[in-house]
Amino acid sequence: MIYDEFYAVARHALKNHAGADGLQITAITPSAVGPVVHWTAPLLARERQRKAMGVVGVVAGPVILDLLVRTLAARWRRGAPYCPQDWDQQLSVRYRRVFGRQTPATGPGWSWLWEGGAQAIVASGVPRNFKTTDMKEKYGAARWYHQAEEDCEYVDDIIDAVEHLSGFICEDCGKPGKIRRGSWIRCLCELHAKGRPGS
Ligand SMILES: [Zn+2]
Question: Is there a domain that residue 199 lies in?
């Protein structure tokens, strides 16, 4: 359940992060926003991890895990995953300062991830004139386009974490998933992949 999903997603999402192998859940406690996973990973680096060859930095492990905690709390809030048909409209209304008039143009499996990202931004402070311009899927992962009056590192980190985590969560149902290549690329769980191999 939430315990297995936390480990399954975290294991893959942090596979290039130094110190992630010491990750452990210490408790799961109820809260107003859903069951909160508490974790410890004493050796997990707090800086961005640079990809071996790359220009693109992967956001720091603790930021990814904090977002995963929020995502799973939202997903298990009602005791079992529940996603209303108009989830995208509801999110847009509930987090208007973050999403503006935009609604996520993705599958419902990422609804809790979008919600976790919005919550994280609200908790840290929505930057002045922050504006979401588009939320969609591209090459199997989420893309969250935004503008703000000033550069804001924590918001960039949260948004990068949403995009990163989406590569490990099924876009159809929200279970742990992986990027599948085929006639089109999507992130799906075993059930929804219907036999398409993961990359
Ligand atoms: Zn699925």
Answer: no
